[in-house]
């Protein structure tokens, strides 16, 4: 493979200024991530500790292998959502190693709102279920939840049943779920352990019932205490809902680790990638390369050079369709195809992308999309030359591709360019964003401008007077609102991605994801829908 020779000068004023601006965006990211660490007020946490209970994050730390990585997913879900429980909701989740096996781990934050589920927490759980299915990940649920947040019941009840359905569908595919119940698991939440392959209940603390004592009293006039109704002892000795009775939380985690050790699941130790070469250039330089202002272009090859092994890249059709960079590389010893934007998509670059995606499927190679795209080129000449059909070819290829695909939004993600570059609607296995990224139908300036033109034309047609001063004021207001609803933090709060990441973590995150991906057979397709020629 050819080595990418950098053209970056880290001593230039432009580089240094951009580096500083990106640092400011990362500081904002870290500030928001700090908010997501909230697990309830200190009084609730102290009370839990006094009962021998751990917090959600402490349980994860005790469960995963010592000194192993944990990739937290959607930590800012719910950020900025009115009426929600705040960033992360009441669920901490991610991918970690347990007994050297990669697992999806979810942990209810029982010390915050009793672990009740608001809409963002539910949406996060549903996305986690998708990730578990696509990657054939065994799941370990660390359960302590009061169930649906009752004021949100109209939003969460109907969709909530998907979580129970998915547990048993995963089981059908021989992808097991282990649930450790540390506290309440009430009403519909009782089906989290009820549908699981393996259940572990913590003595004296686990309480699992379809209806708690007050509701039982109202429904049947029966008076019963919670331990008799749904305690761990009862479920282990009488109902049989509990497979294992743990003496305390540490014992429950020990049992789960032993179960994982005994399950017939591939471990990362079966993988033996070739000798791994570090990139030739420091990954820290990404902060000077990635434009803090997405209107400022940058060469995507400079990004690739800092995340792939040895900065080596076998580029495909380098001299044709130059606004799309395509090629093959390795990350942490695993082969990967990369498709990255270097400008707007023209007819040639669209056709190049479709061709390359077909080749990746024929070669069983996963694809990483690096999105920095304003869309497809518009105008009379491009419409007449068939930009729609050429763009449709690339979208067709993305839609029907069957190799694992991953997306990182490193800059702009506008219009149909988002679709062609495997946006959320096209089901990438994972989708992450950089803190400078923007996602919308189009840029704020263009969108506000289009709305102004429509309003002006409407006034002319109706014979009314167009107020220029009011229009200018409205345009500025619209730009501000659109920018608020386009930035990375708004997007991640809406769960449009799986997390906003520091660019400097890109290589290691992709290494972890490719380790997971390569535990299963990677197989492409040669079947496609009709390519409009």
Mean pLDDT: 92
Residues in helices, as a percent range: 40-55%
Parts with pLDDT < 50 across at least 5 consecutive residues: none
Tell me the radius of gyration.
26 Å
Main beta-sheet strand count, sense and barrel state:
8 strands, mixed
The backbone outline, from C-alpha atoms, is globular
How many E strands? Answer: 16
Q: End-to-end distance, in Å?
A: 33 Å
Q: With helices defined by DSSP (H or I, 4 residues minimum), what is the helix count?
A: 20
* Share in β-strands: 15-25%
Structural class: alpha/beta
Secondary structure blueprint with pairings:
Blueprint lengths: L1 E2 L9 H24 L5 H9 L5 H8 L6 E3 L18 E8 L2 E8 L10 H16 L4 E7 L7 H20 L4 E10 L4 H4 L3 E5 L4 E3 L3 H8 L5 H5 L1 H8 L4 E3 L2 H14 L23 H4 L10 H5 L7 E5 L7 E8 L2 E8 L5 H16 L4 E7 L6 H5 L2 H14 L4 E10 H6 L9 E4 L4 E3 L3 H19 L5 H17 L3 H6 L12 H12 L16
Textual characterization of the structure:
This protein is an alpha/beta fold and 533 residues long. Helices cover 41% and strands 18% of the residues. The chain has 20 helices and 16 strands. The mean pLDDT is 92.
What is this structure, in a nutshell?
Helix content is 41%, strand content 18%.
